[in-house]
């Protein structure tokens, strides 16, 4: 009798658990109904046994079989729940990936400007190691000039200079915003200036020229800039005296692109060496090569 009661309680517990899972939507309603039917059958058999005052071995076997079937149904239900949870997790991962891909459809430029070129076409694979597009910012416009070491002193950061744009046949005011301390691979100094370009009339690739202010100096001599040799704090030129050269120490007063104003014990109208000075020494003999007519 006690065994029958235990089987009945087990069947009823399984039916109760199946009902809760069915209400949550975890298992189908049919699985709960099947477990409840087994519990009802176990109750019926238990009642019959109680009325008869005992239970036969056949009834016990049938009850045990029903309980075993109910337990198997619960195990199948739990397996179905695990599969459903796994499927839900995979679906959430797919949803997150889809949302991320949708967000990546929008390409946001770090700066405003005009799209000059797009490097990829529809369907191409794009990585963050390659530029997707080129954006040109036309305002303000940057003007770059490569100058020599002798011209570098003419440019000062923050200084305003007039710039002539040949294509537009007009001048604009530019502000020097970068003066390098070291030359580039061509041994020139890339000076940069910015100019207001509200109307975007100035385009990339146009030629421009800096208009440097004229400087008037008095009591100086003007020599070719190529003739001036500078070594550390010393400046000098080589003056040609017959077939020899004489070193003349000088003071550089003002340096321009092709002419330099100097002071020193240099004879007015004297010939100076403009090429190969670094191979000369004071008093060295030279031969002047005349150009062919």
Can you tell me about this structure?
By secondary structure, this protein is α+β, with helices and mostly antiparallel strands. The termini are far apart. The strands form three sheets. The chain has a five-stranded antiparallel β-sheet with strand order 3-6-5-4-7, with no helix packed on it. A five-stranded antiparallel β-sheet has the order 8-12-11-10-9, with no helix packed on it. The chain has a two-stranded antiparallel ribbon with strand order 1-2. It folds into three domains: 2-100; 135-211, Beta Barrel (Elongation Factor Tu (Ef-tu), domain 3); 221-279, Beta Barrel (conserved putative lor/sdh protein from methanococcus maripaludis s2 fold), CATH 2.40.420.20. The model has no long low-confidence stretch (mean pLDDT 79). Strand 11 and strand 12 form a beta hairpin. The chain contains three helices and twelve strands, in the order αααββββββββββββ. Pfam families: Beta-barrel_RND_2, YknX_C. It comes from Halobacillus seohaensis. This is Efflux RND transporter periplasmic adaptor subunit.
Count all strands and give the number.
12
Overall pLDDT confidence: 79
Helix-strand sequence: HHHEEEEEEEEEEEE
Q: What low-confidence regions span 5 or more consecutive residues with pLDDT below 50?
A: none
Give the helix/strand class: alpha+beta
Task: Give the proportion of residues in helices.
Answer: 25-40%
Q: Please tell me how large the radius of gyration is.
A: 48 Å
| SS element count, helices | 3
What profile does the largest beta sheet have? 5 strands, antiparallel
Distance between the termini: 137 Å
User: How many structural units, i.e. domains?
Assistant: 3
The outline comes out as rod-shaped
For the largest beta sheet, what order do the strands appear in spatially?
3-6-5-4-7
Percentage of residues in strands: 25-35%
């Amino acid at each position: 009798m006690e065994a029958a009661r235990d089987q009945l309680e087990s069947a009823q517990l399984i039916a109760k658990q199946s009902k809760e899972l069915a209400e949550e939507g975890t298992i189908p309603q049919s699985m709960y109904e099947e477990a409840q039917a087994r519990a009802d059958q176990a109750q019926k058999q238990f009642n019959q046994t109680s009325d008869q005052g005992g239970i036969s071995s056949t009834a016990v076997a049938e009850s045990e079989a029903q309980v075993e079937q109910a337990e198997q149904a619960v195990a199948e239900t739990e397996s179905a729940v695990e599969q459903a949870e796994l499927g839900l997790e995979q679906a959430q991962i797919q949803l997150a990936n889809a949302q991320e891909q949708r967000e990546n459809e929008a390409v946001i430029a770090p700066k405003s400007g005009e799209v000059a070129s797009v490097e990829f076409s529809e369907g191409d694979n794009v990585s963050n190691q390659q530029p997707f597009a080129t954006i040109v910012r036309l305002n303000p416009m940057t003007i770059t000039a490569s100058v020599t070491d002798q011209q570098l002193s003419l440019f000062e950061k923050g200084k305003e200079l007039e710039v002539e744009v040949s294509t537009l046949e007009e001048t604009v005011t530019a502000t020097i915003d970068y003066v390098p301390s070291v030359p580039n691979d061509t041994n020139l100094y890339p000076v940069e200036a910015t100019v207001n370009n509200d109307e975007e009339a100035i385009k990339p690739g146009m030629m421009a020229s800096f208009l440097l202010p004229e400087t008037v100096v008095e009591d100086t001599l003007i020599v070719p800039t190529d003739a001036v040799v500078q070594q550390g704090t010393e400046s000098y030129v080589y003056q040609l005296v017959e077939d020899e050269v004489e070193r003349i120490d000088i003071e550089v007063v003002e340096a321009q692109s092709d002419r330099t104003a100097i002071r020193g014990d240099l004879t007015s109208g004297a010939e100076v060496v403009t090429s190969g000075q670094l191979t000369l020494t004071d008093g060295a003999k030279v031969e002047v090569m005349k150009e062919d007519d």
